[in-house]
Amino acid sequence: MRRAVVIGAGGQIGRPAVEALAKDGWEVTAVSRGGGRDEGTPGGVRTRRLDREDDAALTALIGDGCDLVVDLVAYSARHARQLTGLADRIGAAVVMSTVSVYDDGTGRGFDTMSEPDGLPRYPVPITEDQSTVPPGDATYSTRKAALERELLAAADRLPTTVLRPGAIHGPYSPLPRELYFVKRNLDGRSRRVLAFRGESLFHTSAARNVAELIRLAAARPGFRVLNACDPRPPTVAEIGAAVDAVMGVETRTVLLDGAASASVGRSPWSVDVPVVCDMTAAERELGYRPVVTYRDNLPETVEWLTRRLTEQDWREAFWTLARAYPDLFDYAAEDAWFAARRT
Predict the structure, then answer these.
(1) Residue 103 DSSP label
(2) CA-to-CA dists, residue 172 to 184, 229, 251, 300, 304, angstroms
(3) Residues 23, 76: Cα–Cα separation, whole Å
(4) What pLDDT shows up at residue 43?
(5) DSSP states of 36-72
(6) What is the rounded CA–CA span in Å between residue 136 and residue 144?
(7) Is 221 exposed, middle or buried (0-12, 13-18, 19+ CB in 10 A)?
């Protein structure tokens, strides 16, 4: 039986990836920092504990060898070198990157969006040969670019599929963008404001669709870089309407012609330019067909978020999101904004 090691198996993508590989006949070792088994772990899957920074522990985990390593937490050139240093023991790899490595050819990208004249103008759609940010240690995007660059340098020794997802959605997310709408509905907010007329497009990636790409790439070893996104991405206004439909609520949405007014109208999808990725290469090279649409995946996400909010304050449950968007639920500012419109 083919042996696969999934690093980051307890996370948002790791859980469906383990399930997809196990169903496809792989002998899977599910690796996470905690190393535990939860109720969603398929029977027959082994679980192991690993500190991703421990070189010796990773070497011991791979042991005499495996057919596949799926690395969902690799984040730097050093992590890439950990893998390529074990190339003689690994048949192939699938490694997670991000669409935020793209720049628009003029040095503007995700990292420059808040700078004067820093808004990127990406082609629509973005193909995998679009230029990327310089590799480095400064930001999430540059570190992922460094990861990709190091893997590319070892392409002749370790066949690797690099996947670039967009706005990942599904349960177990540390940065669940859908919380923006779910929490407002649970808090009884009957009005909301969306910047850029609610037309922002930030290509979504269902964790289950990314897992399907992992499954397909596992069966076809080779070096390739692929976008890892859903079918047609919904606008932020369409996402809000879809969440409302799942939760059975009605909300009045006020649309701003331009950017948010401080925190008012700012959502985790609020971008002035569309970020839409081309999925032709994945279809051509792997025969990829998405297994879920955004709407298909939403009820499970809403149910999970609702349950988590009964257990913890949102800042504790989703501290990554809270750090990125500390004023996401500034209701006082919204109420003041609505009051000022009436005067």
Answers:
(1) B
(2) 20, 18, 26, 11, 8
(3) 30
(4) 73
(5) ---TTSPTT-EEEE--TT-HHHHHHHHTT-EEEEEES
(6) 8
(7) middle
Hey, is 217 helix, strand or coil? Answer: helix
**31-90, pLDDT tens digit by residue?**
998 876 666 677 789 999 999 899 999 999 999 999 999 999 999 999 999 999 999 999
Indicate the helix (H) or strand (E) that contains 218. helix 207-218
- The per-type count for the chain, helices as H runs and strands as E runs, is 12, 11
What CA–CA distance (Å, rounded) separates 341 from 336?
A: 9
DSSP for 174-198, written as a single string: SS-TTHHHHHHHHTT--EEEEGGGG
Sorted by sequence, the CB contacts under 8 Å of residue 97 that are 6+ apart come out as 144, 147, 148, 162, 163, 164, 225
Q: Are 163 and 213 in contact (CB under 8 A)?
A: yes
Q: For residue 80, what is the enclosing H or E element?
A: helix 77-84
Three-state secondary structure call for residue 226: strand
* Cβ pair 93, 150 in contact under 8 A: no
- Residue range 1-37, pLDDT digits in tens: 899 999 999 999 999 999 999 999 999 999 998 876 6
How many alpha carbons lie under 13 Å from residue 140 in its C-beta half-sphere?
11
Q: Is 247 helix (H, G, I), strand (E, B) or coil?
A: helix
By CB atoms closer than 10 A (0-12, 13-18, 19+), residue 260 is middle
Question: What are the residues whose beta carbons fall under 8 Å from the beta carbon of 294, sequence distance 6 or more?
Answer: 169, 204, 206, 230, 233, 234, 239, 242
pTM of the model: 0.96
